[in-house]
Specification:
InterPro entries: Alkaline_phosphatase_core_sf (IPR017850), Sulfatase (IPR050738), Sulfatase_CS (IPR024607), Sulfatase_N (IPR000917). There is one protein chain. This protein has 485 residues and is an alpha/beta fold. The protein folds into two domains: 350 residues, Alkaline Phosphatase, subunit A; 103 residues, Arylsulfatase, C-terminal domain (2-Layer Sandwich). Helix content is 27%, strand content 19%. The chain is built from ten helices and 19 strands. The strands form four sheets. Strands 1, 2, 4, 5, 6, 7, 8, 9, 10, 11 and 12 form an eleven-stranded mixed beta sheet that branches. The protein has a four-stranded antiparallel beta sheet with strand order 13-14-15-18, with helices on one face. A two-stranded antiparallel sheet has the order 3-19. A hairpin with a 2-residue loop joins strand 6 and strand 7. Helix 5 packs parallel to helix 6. The longest helix has 26 residues. It is globular.
Length: 485
C-alpha cells in the first residue's frame, strides 16, 4: 500500500510539474513581430511628429501606447540600400548593395545573407512579407527565397513602370520609364496581375492591408513575423475611392489617411485575434521625403534636405514601437538608434543566434524597456551612392565630409505628380551640433577643433573597414551580392 501511495504521489508531482512547465512556456511565448515599413515618409509626416493638415489617430495611438524615437535612422536615404539594412542588420555597402534596383538590375541581395525572416523562421516563427521588396527584380530572388513563407507585393518601386507623371502611358522613347515592363504584383514567385494605371495604384494600400490582416488571423496560434512594406507614400501617390478627397487637404493627405487606416486595421486585427499584447509592432520609414514632388511629397519636420541625401532629412525617420507590458506607454527615446539595430534586438527577444557573418547593428532592447542609463549606439556613419562616406555622427555631433549632394533648395518643387529639379552641389566639410541645431544650419568646426579631430579619426576607422569611393579606399570588410542571370 505504501508503495502504491508513493507511486501515486510521484505521478501527481510529475503531472503538476508538467503543468507548471507548460504554463511557464505559455507565459514565455515568443512575441509576434509586425514591422510596418513606409516608403518615403518624412520625419514630420505623422501627426505625432508634428504632421500638418490631417489626422493620423491610429499612428498616434502607437505613440501613446508605446515609444516614440526622435533620433532613429535609416542606414541610407534610398530604397534598396535601406531595405537591405533593415533585413540584415548590415550597412548595405557591406553587402555590395546600393541605390534603388530597377527591373533591369542584374544584382540582388545574396541569398547566403541571413535575414530577419530566416533568423526568426529558425526560431519557429511563421514568416510573411507583403508589399515592396526591392532586393531582387525577378525569381528566384524574391522574398520566399530569403526566409519568408509567403509573399505578396511589388518587386520594386511603384514608379518603375511605363506610365508618365500624368498617369497616361509613356510615349517619350528617351525616358527611362518607357523601357520599363508593366508593373507586376507578385505572389510567391509568380505575377498574378499588373498595376497599369493610377486607379490600380490606389488599390495597393487596401490589397496589402487585407492580406496582412488575413496573415495575422491565420497565424494567431503560433509566433509570427509580418513585414508589411507599403508602397505609399512613394510617388506616384494614389488613394482608393474610399479615401480620395476625404481629407479636404489634397491627395497626399488622403494617402496619409489611408495609411493610418491601414495601421488601425492591423491593430484591430491583432486585438480581435487575442495577440495584441504579445506583439511587438514597429512603424518606421525607409528614407525621407522626395521633396522635388512638392505637394505629392511629405515633410521633414524642419530637418535639412530629404531623400537621396545624407542630411538629417534624408536619413532620420519617424519610428514608433509598441509592445504592452514591455515598452512603457507614452515614452520618448532620444537615444540614437537605427534600422540596423532591429535584427540584433529581435534576435535577443526571440532567443536566436546572431548571423555568422559580421553585422553592424546593436541590441537596443534596453531602450525598449525604458532603461534611462542605456546607451547601446553612440555612433552612426552616413554612406550614399555606391560607397561614398559623406558623414559620421557621434553623440550630439555630426561631421560632414566634402562630397557632392542632391539639393532641393535651388528650385521650386513640382506639383500634382510632376517633379521639380534636384541638382547636385558641392558640400564642404562642416561640424553640426544636432542637440541644438537639428536643421544643420550652423557650421561650428572652428569652435570645436578637438571634436573635428575625434570625428575624423572615426571617419578613418570606417574607411578602413567599409571603404570610401571619395578617397578611393577599397572595402576590406565587404561581401558580394548575388548576380541575376
Amino acid at each position: 500500500m505504501s508503495i502504491n501511495t508513493t507511486n501515486m504521489t510521484r505521478l501527481l508531482l510529475s503531472t503538476l510539474l508538467a503543468c507548471l512547465c507548460l504554463g511557464a512556456r505559455g507565459q514565455g511565448k515568443h512575441p509576434n513581430i509586425v514591422i510596418i515599413f513606409m516608403d518615403d515618409m518624412g520625419y514630420g509626416d505623422p501627426e505625432c511628429y508634428n504632421g500638418l493638415l490631417y489626422h493620423t489617430p491610429n499612428i498616434n495611438r502607437l505613440a501613446a501606447e508605446g515609444m516614440r524615437f526622435t533620433n532613429f535612422y535609416a542606414a541610407q536615404a534610398v530604397c534598396t540600400a535601406s531595405r537591405a539594412a533593415l533585413l540584415t542588420g548590415c550597412y548595405p555597402n557591406r553587402l555590395g548593395i546600393s541605390g534603388a534596383f530597377g527591373p533591369w538590375t542584374r544584382i540582388a541581395l545574396n541569398p547566403k545573407e541571413e535575414t530577419l525572416a530566416s533568423m526568426l523562421k529558425s526560431a519557429g516563427y511563421h514568416t510573411g512579407m507583403i508589399g515592396k521588396w526591392h532586393l531582387g527584380s525577378k525569381a528566384p530572388f524574391f522574398p520566399i527565397h530569403y526566409g519568408f513563407d509567403e509573399y505578396l507585393g511589388l518587386p520594386y518601386s511603384n514608379d518603375m513602370w511605363p506610365v508618365d507623371y500624368n498617369g497616361k502611358p509613356m510615349t517619350d522613347t528617351a525616358d527611362w520609364r518607357y523601357k520599363c515592363p508593366p508593373l507586376p504584383l507578385i505572389e510567391g514567385d509568380s505575377t498574378i496581375r499588373y498595376i497599369r494605371n493610377l486607379d490600380d495604384q490606389g488599390e495597393l494600400t487596401g490589397i496589402y492591408t487585407r492580406r496582412a490582416c488575413r496573415f495575422i488571423r491565420d497565424n494567431k496560434d503560433h509566433p509570427f513575423f509580418l513585414y508589411l512594406a507599403h508602397s505609399m507614400v512613394h510617388v506616384p501617390i494614389a488613394a482608393s475611392a474610399a479615401f480620395r478627397g476625404k481629407s479636404g487637404q489634397g491627395l497626399f493627405a488622403d494617402v496619409m489617411l489611408e495609411v493610418d487606416w491601414s495601421v488601425g486595421e492591423i491593430m484591430r486585427t491583432l486585438k480581435e485575434a487575442g495577440v495584441d499584447r504579445n506583439t511587438l509592432v514597429i512603424f518606421t520609414s525607409d528614407n525621407g521625403p522626395w521633396l522635388a514632388y512638392g505637394n505629392h511629397a511629405g515633410n521633414t519636420g524642419g530637418l535639412r534636405e530629404g531623400k537621396g541625401t545624407s542630411w538629417e532629412g534624408g536619413q532620420r525617420e519617424p519610428c514608433l514601437m509598441r509592445w504592452p507590458d514591455v515598452i512603457p506607454a507614452g515614452t520618448v527615446c532620444n537615444r540614437i538608434a537605427a534600422t540596423l539595430d532591429v535584427l540584433p534586438t529581435l534576435a535577443r527577444i526571440a532567443g536566436c543566434s546572431l548571423p555568422a557573418n559580421r553585422i553592424d547593428g546593436v541590441d537596443i532592447y534596453a531602450l525598449l524597456k525604458g532603461d534611462p542609463t542605456a546607451h547601446p549606439r553612440d555612433e552612426l556613419v552616413y554612406y550614399y551612392h555606391t560607397n561614398s562616406l559623406e558623414g559620421v555622427r557621434q553623440g550630439q555631433w555630426k561631421l560632414v565630409v566634402p562630397h557632392r549632394s542632391r539639393t532641393y533648395k535651388l528650385n521650386m518643387p513640382g506639383r500634382d505628380g510632376y517633379p521639380g529639379k534636384q541638382p547636385d552641389i558641392d558640400v564642404p566639410m562642416a561640424l553640426y551640433d544636432l542637440s541644438t541645431d537639428p536643421g544643420e544650419t550652423l557650421d561650428v568646426q572652428s569652435e570645436h577643433p578637438d571634436i573635428v579631430r575625434e570625428l575624423q579619426a572615426l571617419v578613418d576607422k570606417y574607411r578602413a573597414d567599409l571603404g570610401d569611393d571619395l578617397t578611393h579606399t577599397p572595402c576590406s570588410g565587404c561581401r558580394a551580392p548575388a548576380t541575376i542571370p
